[in-house]
Amino acid sequence: MVVGYVKVGDMVEAKRLFDEMPQRNVASWNAMIWNFVKVRDLGNARVVLDAMPEKSVVSFTIMIDGYVKAGDMATSRFLFDQAPERILVSLMSASSQLVALYVCTMFGYTTSIRPRR
User: Fold this and answer.
1) For residue 77, is it within any domain?
2) 111 domain residue, yes or no
3) Beta strands in 7-89 (DSSP E)
4) Is residue 83 domain-resident?
């Protein structure tokens, strides 16, 4: 049901239902993260990610993609390094931007690579 509310853009009802769920599965956690990222609310998306008891590669991929699209390469790199299965995460569209970050860092072209919380 949470996924259904997220798909139609009813985040208020999705969050209410999510909060009332006695047991949440990975799909419901990821649906909440995805919707927050979709509306560019990375703060709430990160709160959900951090609260997840067991994070999946999908969870990290959604968040990394959100941070990359927001131009926050430092935090996307930080999460990339936290991801349990970096090989799968690196297949996402943000991988080329992460490579650019590594190269820029190697040659001293970045001024700050500290992640935001």
Assistant:
1) yes
2) no
3) none
4) yes
Cα-to-chain-centroid distance, residue 57: 10
Q: What is the pLDDT of residues 14-44, one digit of tens each?
A: 888 888 988 888 888 988 898 889 889 999 9
Instruction: Determine contact, residues 28/3, Cβ cutoff 8 Å.
Output: yes
CA 86, 68, 36, 50 torsion: positive or negative? positive
Q: Give the residue numbers spanning the domain of 67.
A: 2-106
Give the span between the Cα atoms of 72 and 49, in whole angstroms.
Answer: 17
**For the chain, what is the radius of gyration of the CA atoms?**
15
> How many domains does the chain contain in total?
1
Would you say the pTM of this structure is higher than 0.70? Answer: no
The span from the CA of 98 to the CA of 87, in Å, is 13
